[in-house]
Amino acid sequence: MSLRPLKLAICICFVFGLAACSSSKGNVQTVDPVVSTAPSGMVLGHRQAFIDSATLVRLEIAHGSFLRALALESQSEYQLAEQFMRHAYESDPSSRFLAFSLVELMEMRGASAEALKLAETAKKLKGVETSSQWALLGRLYSESSNLDSALVYYKKAVDSNEQNLRAVYEYALLLEIAHDYDELMKVYATLLPQIGFPQSMMDRELSLLNVAGKDSLMAELLLSAYESNGDAKYLTEHSRLLFKMKKYEDVLLDVERMKTDSLNDSLAMTFMMSAFVELGRNTEALDSLRARYSRGPKDSYVLMKIALLETKLNDRDKAKSDWNKLKEDPEFGADANAMLSSYYWEDGDSSNSLKYMEKAYSLAPSRYGENMATRYASEGHYKKAYAVLDFLLKDRAELDSLAEASKLRENVDLDKVSKVKRSIAFQMAEFHYIYGYVQLVNAEAWERVPTTKAKLDSAFAIRRKAESHFGSSIKLGGETLNLLFSMGANLLALGKVDSSIVVFKKLFAQDPKDAMALNHLGYFLVDLNRNSKEMEWGASLIDSALKLDSDNVAYLDSKGWALYRKGQFEEALKIMEDVEKRAVEVEGMLNQDTSIYSHLAAICDALSLNSRAMNYYKKVLAIDPQNVLAKERTKALEASGKAN
Question: Domain extents for the chain?
Answer without folding.
Answer: 1-38+46-127, 587-644
